Amino acid sequence: MAATIRDVAQASGVHVSTVSRAFSAPHLVNAATRNRVLAAAEDLGYRPNRAARALTTGRTHNIGLIVADISNPFFPPLIKAAQAHARRRDYHVFVADTDEDPLVEEELIQTLTKQVDGVLLCSPRLSNRAIERLGADVPFVVVNRKVRGMSTVLMDVGHGARLAVEHLVSLGHRRVALVAGPSGSWTSGEMRDAATATARESGVELVILGPNAPTELGGLAAAADVLQAGVTGVLAYNDLVAIGLIEGLYERGVRVPSDLSVIGVDDIVSGRLNRPKLTTVAMPTSAAGRTAVDLLLASVGAGDGATPALATLETNLVIRESTAPPT
Amino acid sequence: MAATIRDVAQASGVHVSTVSRAFSAPHLVNAATRNRVLAAAEDLGYRPNRAARALTTGRTHNIGLIVADISNPFFPPLIKAAQAHARRRDYHVFVADTDEDPLVEEELIQTLTKQVDGVLLCSPRLSNRAIERLGADVPFVVVNRKVRGMSTVLMDVGHGARLAVEHLVSLGHRRVALVAGPSGSWTSGEMRDAATATARESGVELVILGPNAPTELGGLAAAADVLQAGVTGVLAYNDLVAIGLIEGLYERGVRVPSDLSVIGVDDIVSGRLNRPKLTTVAMPTSAAGRTAVDLLLASVGAGDGATPALATLETNLVIRESTAPPT
DNA sequence: ATGAAAGCGCTAACAG
DNA sequence: CTGTTAGCGCTTTCAT
């Protein structure tokens, strides 16, 4: 068994509470004794037991991070950033994958809730109602969804979609498609609204295709619809869908961007590596991870009364090789 | 504050110890009272506090999962599988990213150690000595590295490398390169040994290039070396490196596979989406995640005395479009 | 089958 | 500045 606070107390000839203070309120203890305690601790390889500490303080110094699918390349940079940022603030993070299943999501939140000071919900599949209910027990920060009374980190994908459609228009496209995402997705709704408005303003036709799975397979399957829709430009729900779509078009002898232009969303790494390199709406995922952690820890510190914060992060269009004038 | 065991005891008119038993040793309590207790618990939304439980039982029901880089697409499927498998066994998992830094890795292990029943070390960058030392406190399972006295999950990349070189040879290549990984990598060492042996047996020349960063950038940077080495076939440390390399070659006017053949390792998704589709040594990452969790929980149950287990998982060669006969 | 009591490792008043 | 005392929520002997 590892050393406990009692071992350290004994070794340094002080009471356990002094040892406790030496760690959690160093200024309250005489420099000389503090050093003695710290030395003994070092010596024994003592590390405070955070679970025990949590029991008295009510702070676990853990946070939960719940995502729909770790394998979706959109998430790892967010997880990585959140986790690194949390660690800098002396927090550990539980990562859980719901496999896109709302029931799993709910179960996970409930079991995690006791072990964490707050949870980060990324692109939740749960209904707003369910989220509000669950949020009574522990602070939440929601990423990519607006939930009443809850701190939120949004990436302004509406603006990105607008830029994307405008880019297509400026290239000369007159009839474009939006290959939408899953029906529960807030992001997909935002894209639809923004694309619709932009198309109307620019006087181009917009056809909406979907819902589709947010994966390469979803894009692959959408290729037929896109061809049938008779469009020359496409905005896809995300890069995975865009890549799958390009592959599907390729299999049907349609080349991107010479025959058809495609724009993705996210700016995942493999979009930069594929040929043609993907024109895409870049999402600030790392920043979102850090911001979410900041908001979460702020509301942990503030207690219940705090007004929920809303952070909206900019998106921007990265023009690469998958868009060109129509032929 | 959420309901505690005491609230449930009061609500159901029994002592707390009975409530405790109703949850953790149901057979020790009368069916009628048990139902009453369970009903009251349900009613109050009571969930046992795992941290408090851990304090008395010594089992946290958490495990730590430490990886070098979450953003490397090799890891997410492993994390996803491990996490899902752990959850089925009623375990939560802390995920931590060391950013390829051994110091961070050590620090992480130490702080996590008190909160977990065991840790999964994936592709560690720490020295074997350090790992053995740290392993005294808590059970470890190491993935992709052999450490004395420790349970291990290995993917037989040596066999994969052999298949890869043989494939190149059978295509007619006579001079091939291995674009190696980081110097601390066990996998890279295995590949080197296997490739060297296979080349010798087949009577072809092998040149070893590296060390290289295990990323697209590493591959991109290796393009010049590869060209200079005058080889016609390449086995890259992983798919990321292979993709970066192909890109670097492309920029220099060299086409894959017509001018040069390239084989990767891992079988990440974007390798299947890129053009040319990558020929690669497929690694059973999901299986590795599950197996690692199984071994870990086994040694948690068994206590210290258990003999470390070794699981070796098969790899195989997936031939796609990035390899062809030399011209 | 259930209750009583002690204690896991730690922190937080409260004294002194 | 440091020691004392009382728990945090739960499990686990030991009685009954």
Structure, explained:
The structure is a homodimer of 327-residue chains. With 327 residues, chain A is α/β, with parallel strands linked by helices. Chain A has 3 domains: 5-57, Orthogonal Bundle (434 Repressor (Amino-terminal Domain)), CATH 1.10.260; 62-155 and 285-315, Response regulator (Rossmann fold), CATH 3.40.50; 157-282, Response regulator (Rossmann fold), CATH 3.40.50. Chain A is built from 13 helices and 12 strands. Chain A has a 6-stranded parallel beta sheet with strand order 2-1-3-4-5-11, sandwiched between helices. A 6-stranded mixed beta sheet of chain A has the order 7-6-8-9-10-12, with helices on both faces. The termini of chain A are far apart. Chain B binds a DNA duplex (16 and 16 nucleotides) through helix 2 and helix 4.
- What general form of chain A does the structure show? elongated
The Cα radius of gyration of chain A reads 25 Å
* Helical coverage of chain A, percent range: 40-55%
| CATH domain fold name of the largest domain in chain A | Rossmann fold
Average pLDDT reading of chain A: 93
Oligomer: homodimer
Q: Which structural class fits the helix and strand makeup of chain A?
A: alpha/beta
Topology, element by element:
The structure is a homodimer of 327-residue chains.
Chain A: H1 5-12, H2 16-24, H3 31-44, H4 50-57, E1 62-67, H5 75-88, E2 92-97, H6 102-112, E3 118-122, H7 128-134, E4 140-143, E5 151-155, H8 157-171, E6 175-179, H9 186-202, E7 205-209, H10 216-229, E8 233-236, H11 239-251, E9 261-266, H12 269-273, E10 279-282, H13 285-302, E11 310-313, E12 316-318
Helix pairs in contact in A: 1-2, 1-3, 2-3, 5-13, 8-9, 10-11
The structure holds a DNA duplex (16 and 16 nucleotides).
